[in-house]
Every structure is written in structure tokens, then in C-alpha cells.
Amino acid sequence: MATATIQYDLSNPDDTMDFKRACKANDMSCVLFQLIHNAKKEIEYKMEGKNMDQYETLDFVFDEITEIINEHNIDIDDIIS
Question: Which of 2, 4, 19, 76 places its Cα 20 to 30 Å from the Cα of 67?
């Protein structure tokens, strides 16, 4: 079996950012899976019977996306900046 060792210098800001991203990679993958495979049906179900204009619908959809991201403890500001 092949193995790999990755070392991060956590006193280096670039390495620290890479470390945080690596630690959150599985959570981010779960978010993407949820968005691609489940979110459309869930959002359609939650919107059923609601009479919303296009702006309310857009806000609703992005609120749902934000909720999925938050459920997986993804802090975008922590892994981007």
C-alpha cells in the first residue's frame, strides 16, 4: 500500500491555509454532493405551495445553500482569505 506524509509549517500563513483546506476537504465534498444530488428536490419540496417572485425565490435558494454549508461547518472566510 502506498503512503504519503504531508507536512505543514503552521507558522507559515500559506501552509496554515493549505492545512485548513486539507482538513475541510471531506466536509466540502459532502456539501458538493448534497448540492448536486439532493438539494434540488429538497428545495422544491420546501417551496411547494409558496408564491414567491423571482427575487424571493433566489433568496430562498441561496439561504438553503448557506444552510447546507453551515451544517457541514464550512467557514468560507476561514479557508479562502
Answer: 19
C-alpha cell at 58: 433566489
Which residue segment(s) compose the domain that 19 sits in?
13-80
Residues 6+ apart with CB under 8 A from 67: none
41 lies in some domain = yes
Task: Please report which helix (H) or strand (E) contains residue 73, including its range.
Answer: none
Q: Per-residue pLDDT tens for 8-46?
A: 999 999 999 999 999 999 999 999 999 999 999 999 999
Chain centroid to CA 33: how far? 10
- Structurally, how many domains does the chain consist of? 1
Compute the distance between CA of residue 63 and CA of residue 57 in angstroms, rounded to an integer: 10
